[in-house]
Every structure is written in structure tokens, then in C-alpha cells.
Amino acid sequence: MIATVLVEHRWLTTTALVLLVVLGPAVGYWLTDRPRLAGAAALLSLVPVAALTLVPTSRDLAVGCAVEWATPSLGAVEPMANLVLFVPPALFLGVALRRPIAVLVGASAVSASIELAQAFLTGLGRSCSTNDWLSNTLGAALGAGLAVAALWLRSYVNRRRESSDRAMLGSRV
Q1: Are 146 and 25 in contact (CB under 8 A)?
Q2: 95-53-107 Cα angle (round to 5)
Q3: Cα-flanking dihedrals φ and ψ of residue 129, to 5°?
Q4: 129 Cβ partners below 8 Å, 6+ apart?
Q5: Distance CA 164, CA 166 (A)
Q6: pLDDT digits (tens, 9 = 90+) for 69-104
Q7: Taking the CB of residue 156, how many other CB atoms lie within 10 A of it?
Q8: How confident is residue 2, by pLDDT bands cut at 50, 70 and 90?
Q9: Coil, strand or helix at 44
Q10: Angle at 144 between CA 142 and CA 149, to 5 degrees
Q11: Strand, coil or helix: what is 66?
Q12: At how many degrees (to 10) do helices 35-54 and 100-120 cross?
């Protein structure tokens, strides 16, 4: 069902990507002082990941995994959807833990685990593909990058505030 909607409205994944890139650093910045909320947002953003990758379908597939390597492009619906799917969890968890690189590595491992599950749990009716892992990992890299931007922005604002506070204290003396 979701694939049909995305095919009929190809602009949705591109719009979601643009919104994530534009709003991600600001939302991440706001969440830097709220790590519990960032963690809760990360958990909530994993619900679509689980639903879209592990909920069984009515298809019956053989064991195996398609080995193919292509980077996502704006017109390619499924690779872009796989990319967009992993941006929010990586962003939110990167901000919550303040460890975006570790989150990127973990997200890539989670994606690989999902693909392995899809390959061997044929009852799921899900297709395993190295392209899905690549797109998910690229999305996690983007999310981690947005988390880095948010954390840098928080650090920059804090440094400016401290500098301003010191200047004000110095002028009072």
C-alpha cells in the first residue's frame, strides 16, 4: 500500500528529504538540551522502520538476497524511501547520545540485520537487497550529519553566550 502511494506521488520522498535537511538541524538543536525527548523521538521514528521492513506481507519468497549496487536518485521511489526512512532515527539518536558516528555505525548494522532477516525469514514476504542496506546507510549518514550540525550549533551558541556573559561581567568590574 505505501509503495503504491509513493509511486503515485513520487514527490513525497523528495519533499520529505528536503524537509529533513532544512528542519533537521533546527529540531536537533532544540532537542540537544532535551536528550530524553530526543531518545523518545528516536524510538518513535523506529516504528515506521519496523513496520515497513519486518511486518509480513502476503508474498512468498525464496531464501536469498539481491546483490545490486545503485545510489538513490530523486526519481527512484523505493531507494529514496529507504534513505528517508533512516534519517530521523539517526538524527534523534545522534543528538540524544551525542555520538552521531556511533549511531551511524549502529544504524548500518541494524539495516544489515533487517536485510538478513528478510533473506532468511521467507514467511515475511520481504525482499532482501543490498541496495536497501546502502540506501538505509546513506540515510543514517545524512541523519548523523544533521545531528553533527545540531550539536555544533548548540556548542557554537553556548560558546557565544559564555563569551557574552564574560564580556558583561568584565564591564561591571
Answers
A1: yes
A2: 30
A3: -150, 135
A4: 65, 66, 68, 115
A5: 5
A6: 888 887 788 889 999 999 999 999 999 999 999 999
A7: 11
A8: low
A9: helix
A10: 95
A11: strand
A12: 20
